[in-house]
């Protein structure tokens, strides 16, 4: 049966989308059937696969608000085993429209219940907030994977995220667990990066992945070519480390 992993951190720019796109691609390349759900109105995961958001008619919004079945909206990516439920700007309205809808926190969970035998993994790229889109993601998920950028104030805001996770556990989704914490944009030349790794390991202990994602220019270039890094530059460090992370995630099963 499917494992649903929400990639969440309410801070922007920490590597959620980069991790969602490249982890999904690597899991698929390793033979898993994967659906990537873009639930961020910015739609960066969608454009990261080369899709033009303004040309898409339907998106995650329709699964949440209009009960449109996910299989009718999935699009095939350039990776065989990987499909995408895209985001368009329409999603920006969902946060407000959901407020008035019955069972507003469980809309995504209900939609995913109908496809749970179709995939090995569903990866959800969350927006940088703890609003209803992220709550829907956490409610639909088996686990949450948190990217943390190796920078000053790395741990700031994480207690808020963990509080939200335990509120969702208590009230909406008792099976939700912390999948793991992945350190991103590590720069071995700076003491700060090394310090942050120590700090995060002290705090999250065995929940921190062995794989640390370094700063890698190929990872930042790939989205503008509409490709995950394993297609854009398969020999890059970025491709190597996201394969390592995918193997760790599979190994955790
Ligand atoms: P989020 O989804 O959390 O807002 P992104 O994944 O979009 O964060 O990353 C923010 C920016 O940093 C993007 O421009 C992205 O290309 C870049 N980036 C992310 N991870 C790396 C990395 N390991 N090396 C270099 N650039 C990165
Ligand atoms: Mg993002």
Structure description:
- The protein has helices at residues 16-29, 44-48, 60-65, 94-97, 107-113, 132-140, 158-171, 191-204, 217-221, 229-232, 237-251; strands spanning 3-7, 34-38, 75-76, 82-85, 121-125, 143-149, 177-184.
- It has 253 residues and is of the alpha/beta class.
- The chain has a single domain, classed as P-loop containing nucleotide triphosphate hydrolases (Rossmann fold, 3-Layer(aba) Sandwich).
- A seven-stranded mixed sheet has the order 3-4-2-5-1-6-7, sandwiched between helices.
- Strand 6, helix 7 and strand 7 form a beta-alpha-beta unit.
- Helix 1 (16-29) crosses helix 11 (237-251) and helix 5 (107-113) runs parallel beside helix 6.
- The protein is globular and about 50 Å long.
- The mean pLDDT is 96.
- Adenosine-5'-diphosphate (ADP) binds at residues 12-18, 44, 128, 184-185, 213, 215-216, 219-220, 223.
Summarize the helices and strands and which ones pair or pack.
Elements: E1 3-7, H1 16-29, E2 34-38, H2 44-48, H3 60-65, E3 75-76, E4 82-85, H4 94-97, H5 107-113, E5 121-125, H6 132-140, E6 143-149, H7 158-171, E7 177-184, H8 191-204, H9 217-221, H10 229-232, H11 237-251
Parallel strand pairs: 1-5, 1-6, 2-4, 2-5, 6-7
Antiparallel strand pairs: 3-4
The structure holds adenosine-5'-diphosphate and magnesium ion (MG).
Adenosine-5'-diphosphate (ADP) binds at residues 12-18, 44, 128, 184-185, 213, 215-216, 219-220, 223.
């Amino acid at each position: 049966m499917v494992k649903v992993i929400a990639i969440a951190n309410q801070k922007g720019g920490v590597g959620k989308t980069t991790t969602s796109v490249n982890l999904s691609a690597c899991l698929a390349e390793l033979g898993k059937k994967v659906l990537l759900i873009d639930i961020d109105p910015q739609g960066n995961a969608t454009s990261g696969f080369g899709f033009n958001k303004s040309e898409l008619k339907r998106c995650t919004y329709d699964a949440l608000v209009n009960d449109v079945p996910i299989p009718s909206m999935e699009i095939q990516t350039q990776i065989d085993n990987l499909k995408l439920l895209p985001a368009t700007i329409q999603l920006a309205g969902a946060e407000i429209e959901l407020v008035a809808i019955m069972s507003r926190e469980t809309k995504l969970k209900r939609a995913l219940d109908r496809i749970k035998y179709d995939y090995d993994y569903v990866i959800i790229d969350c927006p940088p907030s703890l609003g209803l889109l992220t709550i829907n993601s956490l409610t639909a998920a088996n686990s949450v994977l948190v990217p943390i950028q190796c920078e000053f104030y790395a741990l700031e805001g994480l207690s808020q995220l963990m509080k939200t996770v335990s509120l969702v556990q208590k009230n909406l989704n008792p099976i939700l667990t912390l999948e793991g914490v992945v350190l991103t944009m590590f720069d071995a030349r700076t003491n700060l990066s090394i310090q942050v790794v120590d700090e995060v390991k002290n705090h999250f202990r065995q929940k921190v992945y062995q794989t640390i994602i370094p700063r890698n220019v190929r990872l930042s270039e790939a989205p503008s070519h509409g490709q995950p890094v394993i297609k854009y530059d398969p020999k890059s460090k970025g491709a190597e480390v996201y394969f390592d992370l995918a193997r760790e995630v599979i190994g955790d099963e």
